[in-house]
């Protein structure tokens, strides 16, 4: 049996879905719209499923046929088309990072908010270089070769999103096990805890710790991230990551369920203020 074709990049897939919704809102069938766009039914179907590469001129023509006159909506869609076609910085590392990871970075790069739950590892946007390198050493058991320097550089570049004039708004609920798990040496973990505490002081970053004393709670065993956008055409998406793949949940109901779970996680965790005190206390104990 032939291997299944890889899923198209998520942002291209979502642009196609937005165009499909506009076609249906205009009361056009796939065949009717294809005829007016002077393309085949199969070509339009592939574009709507994210299988083809849309150009700005193609999207503009579709918006004309679908009767979209709202300038803000047109501009948003055309800008999204351009962003998808532009070569993102992560593509320069395409030989060093797996395609699912690159797909996630393309989504993260367009995000304005991320709500994340971590269980055994510190969130990637909060990791120090020694911590990343220690993880990479552990990951060498994977079949594919690993360019550690490239991986470090990719993480560093991603972390720049937390600074600047319009920084990413990051909320992380982290199980204390992620900070007690000895990744690398004691010195590596001490520096990592210092980094988490330092990042928690940013106005756009909220970090809450769930301690062992919290007992059982919703989402106990599942790390996830809810990625949010200001663009009204890009609904929030849930990212689930494991050893071999990155999986996206895009339905409104699924995202709503994870948002509810995240609220429950925040309620089970220490407050941001108490979390900072907990981190400072853990750091003091490690230094003694």
Order of helices and strands: HHHHHHEHHEHHEEEEHH
Overall outline: elongated
Output the radius of gyration. 22 Å
Order of strands in the sheet with the most strands?
A: 3-2-1-4-5-6
CATH level-two architecture of the largest domain: 2-Layer Sandwich
Task: Determine the strand fraction and express it as a percent band.
Answer: 5-15%
CATH class of the largest domain: Alpha Beta
**Helix/strand structural class:** alpha/beta
Largest sheet: 6 strands, mixed
Domain module count:
2
- Total helix count? 12
Q: State mean pLDDT (0 to 100 scale).
A: 86
Low-confidence stretches: 1-7
Helix content: 40-55%
Report how far apart the termini are.
60 Å
Give me the CATH fold name of the largest domain: Endonuclease, Chain A
Number of strands: 6
Tell me what the structure shows.
- It contains 12 helices and 6 strands.
- The chain has 288 residues and is α/β, with parallel strands linked by helices.
- The chain folds into 2 domains: 10-85, 434 Repressor (Amino-terminal Domain); 95-287, Endonuclease, Chain A (2-Layer Sandwich).
- The chain has a 6-stranded mixed beta sheet with strand order 3-2-1-4-5-6, sandwiched between helices.
- Strand 4 (224-228) and strand 5 (237-241) form a beta hairpin.
- Helix 2 (30-37) packs across helix 3 (41-48).
- The radius of gyration is 22 Å and the shape is elongated.
- The chain starts with 9 loop residues before the first helix and ends with a helix.
């Amino acid at each position: 049996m032939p291997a299944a074709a890889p899923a198209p990049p998520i942002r291209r897939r979502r642009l196609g879905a937005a165009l499909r919704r506009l076609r249906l809102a205009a009361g056009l069938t796939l065949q009717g719209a294809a005829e007016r766009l002077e393309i085949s039914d199969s070509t339009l179907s592939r574009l709507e499923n994210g299988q083809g590469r849309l150009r700005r001129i193609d999207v503009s023509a579709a918006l004309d046929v679908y009767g979209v006159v709202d300038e803000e909506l047109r501009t948003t869609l055309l800008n999204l088309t351009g962003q998808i076609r532009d070569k993102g910085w992560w593509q320069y590392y395409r030989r060093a990072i797996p395609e699912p990871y690159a797909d996630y970075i393309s989504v993260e790069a367009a995000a304005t908010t991320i709500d994340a739950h971590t269980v055994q590892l510190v969130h990637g946007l909060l990791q120090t270089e020694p911590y990343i390198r220690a993880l990479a050493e552990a990951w060498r058991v994977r079949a594919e070769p690993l360019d550690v320097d490239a991986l470090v550089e990719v993480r560093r570049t991603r972390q720049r999103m937390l600074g600047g004039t319009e920084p990413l708004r990051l909320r992380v609920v982290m199980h204390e096990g992620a900070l007690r798990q000895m990744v690398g040496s004691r010195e590596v973990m001490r520096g990592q805890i210092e980094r988490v505490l330092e990042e928690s002081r940013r106005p756009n970053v909220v970090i809450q710790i769930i301690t062992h004393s919290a007992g059982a709670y919703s989402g106990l065993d599942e790390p996830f991230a809810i990625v949010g956008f200001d663009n009204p055409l890009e609904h929030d998406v849930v990212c689930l990551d494991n050893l071999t793949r990155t999986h996206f949940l895009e339905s409104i109901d699924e995202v709503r369920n994870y948002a509810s779970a995240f609220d429950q996680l925040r309620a089970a965790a220490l407050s941001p203020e108490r979390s900072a005190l907990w981190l400072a206390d853990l750091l003091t104990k490690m230094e003694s």
